[in-house]
Amino acid sequence: MANVKSVSNAWLQFWDRRAIPILQESRNQLMGMIRRADLIRPSEVAEIVARDPLLTAQVLRMMNQRQKSSMSADVVAIESAILLIGVTPFLERFARAQTVESVMLPAHQAEYGQLLKRVFEARLARRLATVFANKRFDAKLGEIQAAAVLANLCESLAIISPHLDEQAPAASLDLLNLLEQWQMPTAILDLIRVDAEPATRSVLQHAVVPLSRQLDRGWWQDEIQQRLLTIAGVLNFPPEQVWQLLTEQLLAFARKEGKSSQLYTPARYLVMLPGAWPTPARTAPAANLAAAIPAKDLLAERMQALHLAGVQGVPTNQVMALAVRALAEGLGMQRIAFTLLMAAENALRARYVQGVTPTDSLHALRISLEKQHIFTKLLQKPQSFWLNADNYTQFSPHLPPELVAQIGAKSFCAMSIFVGAQPVGLIYADSGLDGTVNEFHYTHFKNICILASKALAHNARRSSV
Question: 31: helix, coil or strand?
Answer without folding.
Answer: helix
